[in-house]
Design a protein that fits this description.
Layout lengths: L11 E4 L5 H11 L3 E6 L15 H6 L4 E4 L5 H13 L2 E4 L5 H5 L3 H7 L4 E6 L14 H7 L2 H4 L14 H24 L3 E6 H9 L1 H9 L16 E5 L4 E5 L2 H11 L3 H5 L6 H6 L1 H12 L4 H10 L4 E3 L3 H6 L1 H6 L2 E6 L3 E6 L24 H7 L4 H9 L4
Parallel strand pairs: 1-2, 1-4, 2-3, 4-5, 5-6
Antiparallel strand pairs: 7-8, 8-9, 10-11
Length: 394
């Protein structure tokens, strides 16, 4: 399958990542055309996430790459790595902060052979500081970064978010940083080290909740399915399910009340202003639930959409992918896997008018699928490759 022209076609990326955060960063680069070589040790049939190589998680994370095995603990393996590093534009790793130094493949070591390299790192807690050497995973960062304290219903105790939000956000942030560094290299000719952590990504994702504390000293708590600062925004029960409504601010509140036949709420001083609605939030929610239970979801979505009030049903994941707008957006991308057959994975949410994503993505490679080809590109002949295999270097 011929790859279409994409913005990152000219960049070679060496992928040392496992788990989820690092692969998420590399996936962004690969999906936008970067030539990615995934390096991993041989013999591991289960990824560090616990996903088998033929499972949905691994297949979704590692598409659009070539793959080779390489023993980075051996001198010969490191020699091959540095041959690749000399050619590369980007290296991405998400080891614990000290591992790359122990292996001798850290940024300073690579920069000596390739000053133009952009070296990307993700760790649990940062590259230095009191927690730098600790292992970190998504849920640990959710707890330490404050997210679990504001998720869930009041009084129920901390609740994790149902996705790996720190892995994915840290990966996205690192890919963004890598592209910034590549842009800077165009001007200066020099690469640099780009790094972030799960903890930093989590605090960044707190966004306005973090700003509330930093600017006003407000420590947010659990608000369940209701917006912490916008009364009238939340999840309400209907005659046949649940619906999200954002009747925040005075304009949307007026539109909602008029459309729902609840003009009496407009005249009620307890709900006349945003401040009053915030003060009387519990009574407001009770009134809104009583109103919403009168009709089914479809009725409310049609009515409130016409009134210009943001709303939508609470979909299960299968309902999400069956939604006509989701299908129109085409975010479920087909993949033709030589062993698994036709598959679909989660595609890109970014649209570039001059660089549309291909109709079909390249499948995740088997372990070491391209080892011989990549070594051949480095100048190793068949006999030399066989010797490397015999010594366990690849």
């Amino acid at each position: 399958m011929t790859s279409p022209a994409l913005p990152l076609n000219d960049f070679l990326v060496i992928d040392l990542t496992a788990h989820r955060a690092g692969p998420t960063a590399v996936r962004q680069l690969a999906d936008w055309g970067a030539q990615v070589i995934k390096i991993e040790p041989s013999g591991e049939l289960v990824d560090a996430t616990g996903s088998r190589r033929d499972g949905p998680d691994f297949q979704n994370l590692h598409r659009n790459k070539r793959a080779m095995t390489l023993n980075l603990k051996s001198n010969e393996g490191r020699e091959i790595f540095f041959k690749l590093a000399k050619r590369a534009d980007v290296i991405v790793e998400n080891y614990k902060s000290d591992v790359k130094h122990r292996l001798g493949i850290d940024y300073e070591a690579v920069r000596k052979v390739n000053p133009r390299i952009v070296y990307g790192s993700i760790s649990g807690f940062g590259q230095d500081g009191p927690y730098a050497g600790r292992a970190g995973v998504d849920q640990i960062a959710q707890g330490m970064g404050g997210l679990m304290s504001i998720t869930g219903h009041p009084g129920q105790g901390p609740v994790r978010v149902g996705i790996a939000i720190n892995d994915t956000s840290a990966g996205l942030l690192l890919s963004y940083g890598i592209v910034l560094a590549l842009l800077n290299r165009e001007r200066t000719g020099e690469g640099q080290w780009v790094h972030t952590s799960l903890l930093e990504a989590q605090i960044f994702m707190l966004d306005f909740q973090g700003a509330r504390y930093l600017m006003k000293g407000e420590v947010a708590g659990q608000e369940g399915n209701f917006h912490p600062t916008s009364p009238g925004t939340g999840m309400f029960q209907t005659a046949d399910g649940y619906i999200n409504i954002a009747a925040s601010g005075d304009n949307l509140w007026r539109r909602f009340c008029e459309a729902a036949g609840a003009k009496d709420l407009l005249a009620n001083p307890d709900f006349a202003t945003v401040v009053a609605r915030a003060k009387n939030r519990a009574a407001l929610i009770a009134h809104l639930n009583e109103i919403m239970r009168r009709h089914p979801n479809a009725y409310w979505v049609e009515l409130l959409t016409k009134a210009g009030v943001p709303c939508g049903p609470i979909n299960t994941i299968d309902q999400t992918f069956a939604d006509p707008q989701v299908q129109h957006l085409g975010i479920a991308k087909p993949v033709s896997h030589p062993k698994l057959g036709p598959q679909k994975v989660v595609g890109q949410p970014i649209h570039l008018s001059r660089y549309p994503q291909p109709d079909e993505l390249r499948p995740t490679p088997d372990q070491g699928e391209h080892t011989d080809a990549i070594l051949g590109e480095l100048g190793y002949d068949t006999e030399a490759i066989a010797a490397l295999r015999a010594r366990g270097t690849v």
